[in-house]
Specification:
The complex is a heterodimer of chains A (about 120) and B (about 110).
Chain A lengths: L2 E4 L4 E4 L4 E3 L1 E4 L4 E8 L5 E7 L5 E4 L2 E4 L9 E3 L8 E9 L9 E2 L3 E6 L1
Parallel strand pairs in A: 2-12
Antiparallel strand pairs in A: 1-4, 3-9, 5-6, 5-10, 7-8, 8-9, 10-11, 10-12
Chain B lengths: L3 E4 L2 E4 L5 E7 L5 E7 L5 E9 L2 E4 L6 E3 L9 E3 L8 E8 L8 E2 L3 E5 L1
Parallel strand pairs in B: 2-11
Antiparallel strand pairs in B: 1-3, 3-8, 4-5, 4-9, 5-6, 7-8, 9-10, 9-11
Classes of the chains: A mainly beta (about 120), B mainly beta (about 110).
């Protein structure tokens, strides 16, 4: 079955540092890939997505590129802020599975940014 | 901007008790789902529905029931709570054709003693 593997946290960075959160996936079909973010006490929100190989998703300074050859979708940001402190989830939906809206999530990575 | 509304936000139950977690969305979304979130395990799909009158099981359905009598509501029922059901529960919805773009509620934290 489909699976998503994220780098384990927690990750602690100083403000303005460079962020990378690794994500790799296994899927039988042609997945779409997502990053969701969960701020403290809130539900998950879509951060960015990519629907086909070589697509780059971007939002709020975050970027991730869909790499089919390495089955990866790493999240990056050039300069993090304290307000980026949250839990980040990588996820996929496999259209060949019959329901594109069922997501398979990674275990999440806690990011803390210190001032 | 209501979006997806879950109630209650917090609940403590004793083993064997039953309860219902409520979920309502005002975006006219066809697809609704329930996930549970446990430390180190991400989110796991419990049940989902692609429209009123249609429900199906996800990855971890045992111990939970759902129904979908209207487009707006998708309650999750625990028939006989067990400590293993201690978790944070999220309801999510999506419109037809919106691949993977789920809108989540704020979550319901359930503790079973």
């Amino acid at each position: 079955g489909d699976s998503v593997t994220q780098m384990e946290g927690p990750v602690t960075l100083s403000e303005e540092a460079f962020l990378t959160i690794n994500c790799t996936y296994t899927a039988t079909g042609y997945p779409s890939l997502f990053w969701y973010v969960q701020y403290p006490g809130e539900g998950l929100q879509l951060l960015l997505k990519a629907t086909k190989a070589d697509d780059k998703g971007s939002n709020k300074g975050f970027e991730a590129t869909y790499r089919k050859e390495t089955t990866s979708f790493h999240l990056e940001k050039g300069s993090v802020q304290v307000s980026d402190s949250a839990v980040y989830f990588c996820a996929l939906s496999d259209r060949s599975s019959g329901s594109a809206r069922q997501l398979t999530f990674g275990s999440g990575t806690q990011l803390t940014v210190l001032p | 901007n209501a979006g997806v509304t879950q109630t209650p936000k917090f609940q403590v139950l004793k083993t064997g008790q039953s309860m219902t977690l409520q979920c309502a969305q005002d975006m006219n979304h066809e697809y609704m789902s329930w996930y549970r979130q446990d430390p180190g395990m991400g989110l796991r799909l419990i049940h989902y529905s692609v429209g009123a009158g249609i429900t199906d099981q996800g990855e971890v359905p045992n111990g939970y029931n759902v129904s979908r009598s209207t487009t707006e509501d998708f309650p999750l029922r625990l028939l006989s709570a067990a400590p293993s059901q201690t978790s944070v529960y999220f309801c999510a919805s999506s419109s037809q054709g919106a691949t993977g773009e789920l809108f989540f509620g704020e979550g319901s934290r359930l503790t079973v003693l």
